[in-house]
Amino acid sequence: MKSTLLVGALLTAITTTGAFAQAIKLADVAELSGGGATVGTNWKNGIDLAIEEINAKGGVLGRKLEVTHADSQSNPGVARAQVQKALDAEPYVLLGPGYSGSVKVTAPLAAEAGITQIMGGEAAELTQAGNKFLFRTSFGQQSSMPKVAKYIHDDMKAKSVAVVWVNNDFGRGGRDVVIKELERLGSKVVADLSTEAGQADFAADVGKIKAANPDAVFVYLNEEESARILKELKRQGVTAPLMGETTLIGQKVIELAGDAANGARGHVGLTTDAPVDLIKGFRDRFSKKYNYVPDHNGLKGYLAVYMVKATTEKMGKVDSKAFADTLHGLTIKAADEPGILMDVTFDANGDIDRQSFLVEVVEGKQVVKQVLPKMK
Amino acid sequence: MSNLFDLLVAGLATGAIYALVAVGFTLLWQTSQTINFAQGEFVMLPAFLMLAAMHAGAPFWLAIILGILLSMILLGLAFKMLLVDPMMRHGVLPLAIATMALAIGIKEAVKQFFSAEASPFPSIVPTGDISILGHAVSLQSIGVLVVAILAVFGLTTLLNRTSLGHQMQAAAQNPTVARIIGVPVERMILLTFLINAFLVALASLLITPIYLAKFSSGEVLGQAAFIAAIVGGFNQVRGAIAGGLLIGVLDNLAAAYISTQYRAAVPMIFLIAVILLRPQGLLGRAEERTV
Fold first, then answer.
1. Helix (H, G, I), strand (E, B) or coil at B1
2. Inter-chain CB proximity B14 and A203 less than 8 Å
3. Rounded to 5 degrees, what are φ and ψ at A232?
């Protein structure tokens, strides 16, 4: 009896291991703690939701997806170590990180290993270094900032602009492109303020904005700092219209800043409030599973997994070496792969082309004011 | 000029909160030679206790009371009995190191049980402006300043004008003689721990709506309060108050007129200057040690 049990247990162990060997292994390195915890947690939850859905429908080419999550602690140094560890396990595709600084230091590792990296970073320079294995899930700054500058100049009719940015790769990248574009269009930058990541007190920065008296303020900080500066702008009674990117008007920012977020506007590549049925469906499923409304990072994580699915099915095989080549130039239509939510095209650099939205926070909710079409 | 006025008000409001935290710092040092490196985390924790009470369904006012009471039990009573008393007999340094460990423990526990993400925290002062000398000043800044000043005023009155305060001072200045003349020294020391816990809970209530409730928010506060206490004079309550206000204003002026990138360096440079030129602090008394 004892030996029968032992054989049974061994058999179970062997078959289970067999099933795992067949699974397609993905590795995720994200900002699960530290300043980027909002980014990383949403990204991770988006990934988990997509994998759960895909596996429930039989997986990719009949094989289940499996993911390991590692915490970069929002620190590029830790991210690098975690990515190296993840690559040592030879994943099919690497997902993350979300912070541009962390992507910058980890991308060479993935490229060297020949593993495709699908990430959340938005700094312009990331896809301009000739890395053939790096793909975005959202717009890079070189695609979004010209749209932002055009809106500030044409629609807000701002002749003078204060630019507040966070002193890291993400912030500096956005600041450089937007200032160049604003000046090209003829809007004058009257204050150019750098702030620190994790900064708690924005009284002095807002004081400077107030003194510069601009027609509009462009705010380009991470989520928590965005919430703090919105509160301080309200506290000091700054009335100039506020424009930003996804990070200024995200769900978490609205939750943290409360009333102070009202009236802020932002260009958004991805939003769960988009007037798109597939995105509404995603939002419902996500909220049901996690009990909160995701921000764009939840969408990015979700899309990253469906990019893996669509590309693999396009190849008809699980081949990590051919993955990047297949994804370059690929157009994935939402009609064919509903999980991709909107039609998307990847160019030779790994940048994306997709429709985007202009959003305003009205009474604590993101309201889409304009839909900006796909560029090509 | 209006910019300078705004900066001064904002700086004083932040500085008043630093002062509350720094006063607690000096109180613990004076009565029990405890250098509490977890003081920043002591400010972070009450906000989460209040949030937890609100999540459990308590209205905000009740959550504040519960938060303050729980803080006094955990950060006053339990801190003294479970950490300070057993470590004290090993000397000042092991105790200081133990408080550093406590700081890490509190931070990680909040991260684990609550979340690594920031949470919003309601303000006890309504948003809006009032006009002072023709300048629009936010009610929040004024509210923070008023509450902090009242707390400090109440504390100094207690220390200087009541028999209880005199007993506490006696216990701090010379425990042996105090004991001989019948002052319950142990109880007085416990009282300072409870007062410190009350002050940090109050600081938490005032600062968290601005800084947001986050496990790591104590780091900045603890450091600022430590610098404030040393700059003002580690052995003087009035020194800690002056130090707190000074660091708050200095930080804001440095960010505005020197550079945002170097704002954190300016209080540090000031600290080094004070240590070099006036080691007892601006309002502190020089202490002599004999062996």
1. coil
2. yes
3. -70, -40
Q: Which residue has the tokens 């609205």?
A: A254
**B31 has a chain A CB within 8 A of its CB:** no
Helix (H, G, I), strand (E, B) or coil at B29: helix
* Integer-rounded Cα radius of gyration of chain B: 19
- SS3 letters across B113-135: HCCCCCECCCCCCCCCEEEECCE
**Smallest Cα–Cα separation from A242: which of A72, A94, A361?**
A361
pLDDT of A276: 92
Would you tell me the crossing angle of helices B185-211 and B60-71 to the nearest 10 degrees? 140
Residue A289: CB atoms within 10 A of its CB come to 13
Q: Which residue among B118, B127, B256 places its CB closest to the CB of A256?
A: B118
DSSP symbol at B283: S
Q: Are B247 and B60 in contact (CB under 8 A)?
A: no
Q: Which 8-state DSSP code applies to residue B286?
A: P
Contact (CB, 8 A) for A118 and A95? yes
pTM: predicted TM-score of the whole model, two decimal places: 0.76
Q: What is the pLDDT of residues A287-297, one digit of tens each?
A: 999 999 998 89
Question: Residue B136: how many CA atoms within 13 Å on its side-chain side?
Answer: 11
Nearest to A235 by CA among B140, B16, B209, B135: B140
A70 and A85 Cβ atoms separated by less than 8 Å: yes
Letter for the amino acid at A137? T
Which of A210, A234, A235 should we substitute to test contact with B (largest number of B Cβ atoms within 10 Å)? A235
Contact B118 A227 (CB under 8 A): yes
| Distance, CA of A359 to CA of B78 (rounded, Å) | 50
| Spatial separation of the C-alpha atoms in residues A98 and A334, rounded to whole Å | 24
Residue A7 pLDDT > 80: no
Report chain A's C-alpha Rg in angstroms. Answer: 22
**pLDDT tens, A304-363?**
999 999 999 999 999 998 999 999 999 999 999 999 999 999 999 999 989 889 999 999
Read off the pLDDT of each residue in B27-37 and give the average, rounded to a whole number: 89
Distance in Å, alpha carbon of A365 to nearest chain B alpha carbon:
16
Q: What is the phi/psi pair of residue B121, to 5°?
A: -140, 130
